[in-house]
Amino acid sequence: MDQDKSIYLITLRGKETLSNWENVSGLPQYLNGGWFHTVDEIFWRRLTISTQVLSHLVRGQNRFIPVSRDEQILKWVKKWRKKQTSIPNASQMLHIELYFLLNQLQPLQATLIVNKFTGTNQVGKTTTQISQQLNIEPFQGHLNFLSTLHFIMRKVIQEKVSYPMLYSMIEDLTGQSLLTQSTSKTYTLLRKGYSIEEIAHLRKLRKNTIEDHIVEISLIQGDFDITPFLPYEMGKEISKTATQIGTKKLKAIKEKHPNASYFQIRLVLARQEVSHES
Fold first, then answer.
1. Which domain of life is it from (predicted)?
2. Does the predicted TM-score (pTM) go above 0.90?
3. For the chain, which residues make up each domain, given as ranges?
4. What is the pLDDT of residues 52-108, one digit of tens each?
5. Which phi and psi angles does 173 have, rounded to 5°?
6. Cys staple from 218: which of 117, 167, 248, 270, with CB 3.0 to 4.6 Å?
7. Rounded to whole angstroms, how far apart are CA atoms 61 and 79?
């Protein structure tokens, strides 16, 4: 929705709870809803059903119950399967690509992905079941699962030549489609030369909302120029500080750079994240 119809305020107790949670657990390293929140579920369903299909077909089993009843996903997997000239080769390639990616992660992260797969000899577990097995909170398990999925998606997009099988499952989901509809409208106006204040006025949105959109754009569009929103030297110093103190906590960085806005700090961190993953 373009209109901000409600504003939610965090209570003092809520802030304390969030702060304690961040100190104890924090957000997983690769969690990136800014890039993938609109497409990660689609990619995951394609991957799990494709894995299930290959697992059965490579053993000559043509009858099985798919893990998802989503007609659009099933239709996509059917077309994808027809493009595979050799089921054994496709199965082996997918296994190799996943094995290589998951071996770059911690065992907990890999377990949250692998144990959710369903094949001929395995019934996929739920995130709650796997979390209990790993002795972690289900919510933390869910965040770590998403973080691992986002790691895989970004690696596959950025190194598509190395992961052709996985890239074939995400190719049509990349680029502009990763932006939310509302952010895409803001991006269009930015490219026409409108300022943040002008866009907020035209779209009847708060300035903070437009700034959120710009941070999202900077995460997804690697060539997006952020210099109109902060001086180059300021951005350089903020990036240096974030690296030195080893944190992405806005408050800690803000204390070192009181003249910078939280929006500017978020922009630098977003650009820093993109450059680290390139």
1. Bacteria
2. no
3. 27-176, 179-277
4. 999 999 998 888 888 888 899 999 999 999 999 999 999 999 999 999 999 999 899
5. -105, 0
6. 270
7. 19
